[in-house]
From TrEMBL:
It comes from Staphylococcus arlettae. This is DUF1772 domain-containing protein. Keywords: Membrane, Transmembrane, Transmembrane helix. The chain crosses the membrane at residues 6-28, 57-74, 80-98, 131-149.
Length: 150
């Protein structure tokens, strides 16, 4: 059961990992070339949907990490990679809720009102740095989870 839980964690967190890596490598560069109104319209509606759907994958992944630890005998040295992955995911949740989500809210609100925030490029540059950091953090989590199922 530990292996199944570990695989579920990899798949679920892998969805979030894939999105963050995509945006850190491709999205950041593409958005820099967009007109402000286009950026607000697309990102605002994308964040509106993603902020509702993406946490489900992360939540299932985190519960699967906990299940893998439990099925593998609880808190012990043999579960170190799962425990570290779990703690990093808690850090990820903090970064998402207190750094990324407020930016999403500004852009989503602007898209709904058909307006462009005067500080759009500034907050987008800030978001670009955050998404790159999130992608790096999730890369470490994915490596730890893969080690965990070995």
């Amino acid at each position: 059961m530990e292996l199944v839980a570990g695989i579920i964690a990899i798949i679920m967190i892998g969805v979030v990992f894939g999105v963050d890596v995509f945006f850190s490598i491709i999205g950041v560069q593409a958005l820099r070339k967009c007109r402000d109104k286009s950026m607000v319209d697309v990102l605002g509606h994308m964040h509106q949907i993603a902020d509702k759907r993406m946490p489900q994958f992360g939540t299932v992944g985190i519960f699967a990490i906990v299940a893998a630890v439990i099925f593998n005998g609880g808190l012990r040295v043999g579960n170190l990679e799962y425990v570290i992955a779990f703690l990093l995911m808690l850090g990820y949740i903090f970064i998402y809720n207190f750094k990324s989500k407020p930016i999403h809210k500004v852009i989503t609100t602007a898209a709904e009102a058909h307006k462009v925030p005067s500080n759009l490029r500034t907050i987008q540059t800030h978001w670009d740095r955050i998404i790159i950091g999130r992608a790096i953090l999730l890369t470490i989590v994915m490596i730890l989870l893969c080690i965990g199922i070995m």
